[in-house]
Fold this protein.
Amino acid sequence: MGKEIERKFLVIGEEWRSVTGTRYRQGYLSTVKERTVRVRTVNEKGTLTIKGVSQGATRQEFEYEIPFDEATQLLDLCEKPLIEKNRYKIEHNEMLWVVDEFFGENQGLLVAEIELESEDQAFSRPEWVGDEVTEDARYFNANLISHPYTKW
């Protein structure tokens, strides 16, 4: 069984912008609380991801690579709007942070995430990391479809 332990924070300032981002397009075939089923394209790669219910910062996660052309076709079947964002990968104190800069219906939203080995793992927060929103469901990508950031 796959498991994801991830903490999520708002981004403040611009100091993190020293790296080049990668464009992500993703949609959801299912956004029910018990499971989300996501289709994603990054460059010429497609993935299908199934995630379980979050319990704190932990949830089950299963991810499979699928052909890019099939992922693109599946995006057409997904709930709208699609999530469009640039993802930036930034190392800080030997740990990888990911910043997502959202576009379209979620324009203006900046979120930083860090994946951990355990929920109580210590880590240092960069200066550009603001308030934690790990357990705030408004910031779940699957919820940004039905409740886009620009409509809050």
Remarks:
- The radius of gyration is 15 Å.
- Helices lie at 68-77, 143-146.
- The first helix runs from residue 68 to 77.
